[in-house]
Amino acid sequence: MLQHLNDIPPIDLPPILQRYTYTTYAFLIYFLVTVWRRFFQRPPPPPPPPPHSRSQRSPSPPPPPPPPPHHHRPIRPLHLFLVTCTLLLDSICVHTYPVLSSGAIVITGASSGIGRAACISLAKDFKQYQIYAGVRSDKDAESIRNERITNLIPIHLDVTNPQQIQAAVETIVDSQQPLVALVNNAGVAIHDAPIELVDLKRWRFLYDVNVFGLVQTTQHFLPLLRLHQGRVINIGSIAGDISQPMWSPYASSKHAVEAITDSLRVEMRQFGISVSLIKPGEIKTNLYNAMQGNKEHHGGTDTDEWNIEQAYANSMKRCRPTTTTETRELYSEGLKNSLEFIHHCAITTDNGEVPSVVMTNHAITHAITSPTPRTRYVFGGGAAVWPANLILPDKITDVLHHWLFNLDGWKVFHQQWGKPLFKILNAVFYW
Ligand SMILES: NC(=O)c1ccc[n+]([C@@H]2O[C@H](COP(=O)([O-])OP(=O)(O)OC[C@H]3O[C@@H](n4cnc5c(N)ncnc54)[C@H](OP(=O)(O)O)[C@@H]3O)[C@@H](O)[C@H]2O)c1
């Protein structure tokens, strides 16, 4: 049942057209232009008759013959050249990967949010795959078992713990199944303060999970992936391109994931291992509760009693201890705006304003099961900002980000007139 706009699956090309991506696009554009010219473009008006004068009695020249209809025109060399170029681009650049019909899929960070939803949806939709859900506690393992899905198996997998990663690798080896995919989803987000105030201990901890955890897990699983041309799917973020104020630890870790994925993709090309990066904008999960510093973020949060002053005071407690009160005060307004934004994302209902995990499920499934997986999947409201961020000069995006996050411009899209527009952007933008 489709409940929200963003539950609509992304439009995807049939496999044969995916193989000829650029050619398909070229033909599509050519077809649209032809249709437009044939049906909507009016013929140019006839030239005005020459002025009638007595001195010029000679008969007027015959009118020029009408241009031939479009379907009678010869193929132009330019068209042939463009089609040849796109066919060449396709055959050189679009890689097709084998789709393994059975085997194991390992997903890290599966206790909640994106990871858990992906495990459940893959296990239900693809009975031929055994889904190994990486969790860190017995309680979470039990909760995965309670889903009562036969091909969904919890494993203990802390991505900062090499012994646990090795044990997970051995579990897959013992199961004697090919490894279809590793989904590097485990991640944390700390959102505390501007760079001047962040405690480096917390920043290092975040890198240990989001960056080195991802690298370490991939390193351990690559030999298994290479055996059967499995796939790596990294969960990045729109923050891998857009680094907003007060988010530098998280955004910089996702920038690193972006770079690591780009290098890995080319390194793995020779082995036939596909590497995809999934870059959601905001998605409705526990991440925002965790960012507010709620340790126990699996339901039962105290978000209803949330109060901005208390949240600000908590943030200050987690700051670099040596900073003075005067320095902290300099950032108070921007930080409070930012905390309000996080809180809003944490409490907002799953109504399309902050998209649901259905979107990430689609992207992860496509990256695992398509013969031509995308290198990047970008979606959600933030995806609308993504091309603008790539194209616009920094000085313009700086003003935009300052307005959005230091001067609470985000409220326009989350609480005021921009809300319906933002919901549509969330549903439609899937690059
Ligand atoms: N939600 C969004 O808006 C959004 C947007 C873009 C990208 N992302 C990315 O999506 C991924 C999943 O986040 P989410 O939104 O689903 O948040 P979430 O519900 O908080 O899930 C994070 C998961 O990571 C796990 N984790 C944390 N530290 C770990 C470690 N050392 N080893 C193994 N697992 C660990 C957590 O397990 P515990 O329960 O044991 O802590 C949890 O299962 C993250 O990489 C995040 O950066 C999220």
Describe the protein.
This protein is α/β, with parallel strands linked by helices. It has helices at about 15-20, 20-40, 75-95, 115-125, 140-145, 160-175, 200-230, 250-270, 285-290, 310-315, 325-330, 330-345, 360-370, 380-390, 395-405, 410-415, 420-430; strands at about 105, 130-135, 150-155, 180-185, 230-235, 275-280, 375-380. About 50% of the residues lie in helices and about 10% in strands. The protein has a seven-stranded parallel sheet with strand order 3-2-1-4-5-6-7, sandwiched between helices. Helix 7 runs parallel beside helix 8 (about 250-270) and helix 14 (about 380-390) packs across helix 17. The two termini are about 25 Å apart. The structure holds NADP nicotinamide-adenine-dinucleotide phosphate (NAP). NADP nicotinamide-adenine-dinucleotide phosphate binds near residues 113, 185 and 235.
Summarize the structure.
With 431 residues, the chain is an alpha/beta fold. Helix content is 50%, strand content 9%.
User: In DSSP terms, counting alpha (H) and pi (I) runs of 4 or more, how many helices?
Assistant: 17
Determine the mean pLDDT: 85
Query: How helical, in percent, are the residues?
Result: 40-55%
Major pleated sheet = 7 strands, parallel
Q: Can you tell me the residue ranges where pLDDT is under 50 for at least 5 consecutive residues?
A: 295-303
| Count of extended strands | 7
Distance separating the two termini: 24 Å
Task: Report strand %.
Answer: 5-15%
Strand/helix succession? HHHEHEHEHEHEHEHHHHHEHHHH
| Estimated radius of gyration | 27 Å
Given the C-alpha coordinates, what overall shape results? globular
Query: Helix/strand/pairing class, anyone?
Result: alpha/beta
**Which strands sit side by side, in order, in the main sheet?**
3-2-1-4-5-6-7
Bound molecules: NADP nicotinamide-adenine-dinucleotide phosphate
